[in-house]
Design a protein that fits this description.
Number of domains: 3
CATH class of the largest domain: Alpha Beta
Number of strands: 26
Shape: globular
Strand order of the largest sheet: 2-1-11-10-12-13-14-15-16
CATH superfamily of the largest domain: ANL, N-terminal domain
Largest sheet: 9 strands, mixed
Oligomer: single chain
């Protein structure tokens, strides 16, 4: 067996771990385990059926589904055959899906639900086989996964061993299409070795073990969840529980009791906003107790991160703080959570400090789809809040003259599928990937991100403004869900604001202000003054040219369906600027 081949490593764990739970899925109201042994049998059967259909190493198989155990069964079967998976976000439209299918040309398409099947059948592209995850999807056109497994279980298992042994580290594991925040998605070619070396090196920094239990809720189509929430536990020998949905993550945490959870900052922002809103609406005594507990929790944080000694009395205060305040939050996460891992976008330092103070360690990392994805990460024993951590082993960096981060290592992609020109634009002759991100390393080797190179705003006065830190600061308001800074080639900085409707509704009720219709509510002067005061409260540290002079409240939430967010919940800045051009122009009609 080769240690740099995903499926070969997985089947080593199948043989070694046997009846240990590999996956936990909510079935009929309760979590049901699937053992490593049983998962291995299913993966083997799927692979043998695909082989009997003539699917060969190097062919492509697409997966269009929400997170579920069948996603992993399908992908691991692909890996066992040396067949690259093409994961496609189920939230995409039929037109978008069709473009990716035509580009990748999969011979098999796995589909999660009847609703998704309608989307796929609306595409012009036709594969040789459709495989439906739900049994009721079986038809003349669609083979159910159950039928695939039944057929494969009757085929020669010895033949499977020869297929598995033929997979090599340099074989493609997937073609992962980028989220497309800056244009047409590109197909990132990632190999077995890319993923496995990234897994092994990241595990060293994060100290992940066989005893860990993960809760999976980020889309498996996103490379962060695929590597961190799927390949890491399967190659380490840990257990994965599947959340029912993003909305039920906290409920499912209480049931699965995970030791680790990987997320984008959106979840942590929601937790922070909910807690702070509850505190602000509480009594004077409740506020006093909370901020006393927070102060005690910060001493625990400083002890862990900076080695500050804790006196007997301080340890006593921390125990009281946990009992009075933080235990409720800790219990909501299942009571066993040892670490959050944050990636996909920058996490506010204030939110990270709050979670650490509450006894919930959050380790921020950094990477791209093109780097499988991790290149740096914080972890136990090496943390700088506000940074994205230190380089994982085998990874080299350079900072260019314009402060762009360049990276080289075994996790860097082979290139973009069918697009050599785009590959040459981002990978230089020395093998360094040009990330498009701007940042710097401190004297201890911690990487700090400033912003995306393409996002830097240059005002009409020639001032450079990095929007990300300002947007992150403003989003600390419990009333603000999203912020998009404007100001490139403009006389001043402005912003589009998306309100957190649940929080702003509570505020409206407490002030006896009519909430409906929402389009009229956001125009009220009281609402404008509230948001104006929140922006001023959260940005006193900014230079005069960085401050938000005007803002407009957007009448609708940003969403994946309406096009403002990528499937990984990043704001599509270009789309937002186009969609709300009238609101933006209005802010600049009068000079301030």
């Amino acid at each position: 067996m080769n240690k740099d081949v995903i499926a070969q490593r997985f089947f080593e764990n199948v043989a070694r771990l046997g009846d240990k739970p590999a996956l936990l899925s909510k079935i009929n109201g309760q979590y049901v385990p699937l053992s490593y042994r049983k998962l291995g049998e299913i993966v083997r059967a799927i692979a043998l059926t695909l082989d009997s259909w003539g699917i060969r190493k190097g062919d492509r198989c697409a997966i269009i589904s929400d997170n579920r155990q069948e996603w992993i069964m399908a992908d691991m079967a692909n890996q066992a055959l040396g067949v690259p998976s093409v994961p496609i976000y189920p939230t995409l439209s039929s037109v978008q899906i069709d473009e990716l299918l035509k580009h990748s040309e999969p011979r098999v398409i796995y589909v999660g639900t009847p609703e998704l099947l309608k989307k796929v059948l609306a595409c012009q592209y036709r594969p040789e086989y459709y495989v439906g995850f739900d049994p009721q999807m079986a038809s003349a056109e669609v083979v159910s996964l159950e039928q695939v497994i039944t057929k494969g279980s009757q085929l020669d298992p010895e033949h499977f061993n020869s297929i598995l042994a033929a997979v090599e580290p340099g074989d493609l594991a997937c073609i992962n299409y980028t989220s497309g925040t800056t244009g047409v998605p590109k197909g990132v070619m990632l190999t077995n070795e890319n993923f496995v070396r990234d897994v092994d090196n990241s595990v060293q920094n994060l100290q992940i073990f066989e005893s860990d239990v993960f809760l999976s809720f980020l889309p498996l189509s996103h490379v962060l969840e695929r590597m961190g929430g799927y390949y890491v536990p399967m190659l380490v020998g840990a257990t994965i529980g599947f959340a029912e949905s993003i909305e039920k993550v906290l409920d499912n945490m209480a049931e699965v009791k995970p030791t680790i959870l990987i997320s984008v900052p959106r979840l942590f922002e929601k937790i922070y906003a909910t807690v702070m809103s509850g505190v602000e609406s509480g009594s004077f005594l409740k506020k006093k107790i909370f901020f006393w507990a927070l102060k005690a929790g910060r001493e625990r944080m400083n002890a862990e991160i900076y080695g500050t000694p804790l006196s007997w009395w301080t340890q006593r205060k921390i125990k009281i703080a946990d009992k009075l305040v933080f235990s409720k939050l800790q219990n909501r996460t299942g009571g066993r959570l040892q670490r959050f891992v944050s990636g996909g976008a920058p996490l506010s330092k204030e939110i990270a400090e709050f979670l650490f103070a509450a006894g919930l360690r959050v380790y921020e990392g950094y990477g791209l789809t093109e780097t499988s994805p991790v290149v740096t990460v914080n972890g136990p024993g090496h943390v700088r809040l506000g940074s994205v951590g230190i380089a994982i082993p085998e990874t080299e960096f350079k900072i260019s003259e314009d402060n762009e981060i360049l990276v080289r290592g075994p996790q860097v992609m082979r290139g973009y599928y069918k697009n050599e020109e785009a590959t040459r634009e981002v990978i230089d002759s020395d093998g360094f990937l040009h990330t498009g991100d701007i940042g710097y390393f401190d004297e201890d080797g911690f990487l700090f991100l400033t912003d995306r190179k393409k996002n830097i705003l240059i005002t009409a006065g020639g001032k450079n403004v990095a929007p990300q830190p300002i947007e992150d600061a403003i989003k600390l308001s419990p009333y603000i869900a999203e912020v998009v800074l404007i100001g490139d080639r403009r006389n001043f900085i402005s912003a589009l604001i998306v309100l957190d409707q649940a929080m702003i509704r509570k505020w409206a009720e407490s002030h006896q202000i009519t909430f409906e219709p929402y389009s009229e509510f956001i125009k009220r002067p009281e609402v404008y003054r509230l948001i104006e005061s929140e922006i001023e409260r959260l940005t006193p540290h900014l230079s005069r040219f960085e401050k938000v002079k005007k803002f407009s409240i957007v009448p609708h939430d940003f969403s994946i369906e309406t096009g403002e967010l990528t499937p990984s919940l990043k704001v599509k800045r270009k789309i937002v600027l186009e969609k709300y051009a009238d609101l933006i122009d209005e802010m600049y009609r009068e000079t301030v």
